[in-house]
Amino acid sequence: MKIRNYKELAKIAGCGVGTISRYFSGGSISPQMAQRIEAILKTNEYEKKTENAKVIYLLLPTNLNPSYFALFQKLLNSLLNQEYAVNTIFLTSNWEQHDEQQLKLLINSNFEKIILFWPVANGFITEILDFLQPWKEQTILIGQNCPGWTTFFINNEKLMYDFTMHLLAKAKNILFLSTKENDNKEFYRGYYKACQEVAINPQQLVLQKNGEADEVNLTNAIIDNKIETVICYEDYSQFLLKKLANYPVSVATITCNNEDINQPWKNDKTMVIDWAEMLTKLVAVLNNPDQKAETVELRYKIND
């Protein structure tokens, strides 16, 4: 039997494509699964496109929220579909000795590219870039705008400014909702600038992630300030707002995929970041070894 790619091999072995990728790149898998894959390869004809597999190190923070983790999964699947062998390294949001030890794995490794997936605006670590300097031309940053590097980024401040200005055309009392763990200052600056431009008082509520108390504070903020629209961008805030679905308030959210829009409110508005465009351009960069450093600002659109 001829096996043509990772997907077919994974299906026969009864495992995920990621496990096959780790097998060929020397990553960690169970001895039992390694033996099973070896047995399959011995008894079947496999087109060994991956003998000299193009290895990518994918670096990302440990504290990704569910939305960003979903983006990471799409990125990983896109790389695996291109038959890259992907090694994933999780790093903390604060530079620690453990992080440096993990990154030292790169020093004696053979790889084609490093992708630093770091969409967390409030936790970017300059020490990582310092460490990656020797491989600057092989590194792609996703989520941060760093001059001189190949970067795919979202201008969060501009995005939120444009979104808020759009909302202010129909609503004057807008609440900016965030949490203490995910208080995106770039988003808030964009919101604040838009409010100042039209002489509207900016209103913010920072949730403490303490359940009922947050629900009470959010309810009071909506009622006391006659809020017409609430801007939120992370899952906990949206979870609380679902409980308040009967209140006459519009909810404005941010997503990276139209398919992720599944909300119970009427008159919602959604800012959609063009993630598919980024994946297409990323694959083009990976397939072009002579690609020079460039900065790609991701596009976005508003769905009314």
TrEMBL record:
Keywords: DNA-binding, Transcription, Transcription regulation. GO terms for molecular function: DNA-binding transcription factor activity; transcription cis-regulatory region binding. The keyword Nucleotide-binding does not apply. PROSITE patterns: HTH_CROC1 (PS50943). Residues 7-48 form the HTH cro/C1-type domain. It holds the Pfam family HTH_3. InterPro entries: Cro/C1-type_HTH, Lambda_DNA-bd_dom_sf, Peripla_BP_I. The keyword Mitochondrion does not apply. It comes from the Bacteria. PANTHER family: HTH-TYPE TRANSCRIPTIONAL REGULATOR GALS, LACI-RELATED TRANSCRIPTIONAL REPRESSOR. This is Putative transcriptional regulator protein.
